[in-house]
Amino acid sequence: MQFESIQVFVFSCYHGYLFAGNRTMNILRNISTTFWSPDVWLPPNITWEDISPNSDNMYANYQHLVYPLPMAFVMLGIRYALERYLFSPFGKWLGIKSTRSKKAVSNEILEKAYLSKKTKYKQILGLAKQLDWSERQVERWLRMRRSQDKPSTLIKFCESWLVIVIIIKYIAEITINSLIN
User: Fold this and answer.
1) What is the distance between the alpha carbons of residues 154 and 91, in angstroms, rounded to a whole number?
2) Domain range for residue 55?
């Protein structure tokens, strides 16, 4: 069967630490066989053995698909560490404020209107009558609620520094690519 190592990984789940019944195993085997069928992925008269990497050809090895997931977690960790321990303190040192806008008073009726995103003038008048507020108060509440969802200046600063994280990702990708080849 093609992709034996993937099937071993899927069906044995870390070399037998987790077990599934025979029926489950058969279902998973059928799904795997259907998914990796050469009829689905390859042109006619080509098999998986024809494109497996060897000394004659340099096709990509399907086993390399294991690398991106751990790399993604490492990159997320690097991003988190850089934002928390480097960019945020640096932004505070520069005097960038991390204050958020005032919180709008909770109001279910206005919250429903806010979630509709486009509140028209007639709706504002109706809400003002319903709540016994002035239309100015309703507009002010909607503005405060809208500003509540916006990120602070410090958060924007930290996200703008993601260019460095992207450069680190690029360098890591080149390094790992050179290690694989």
Assistant:
1) 6
2) 37-99+152-180
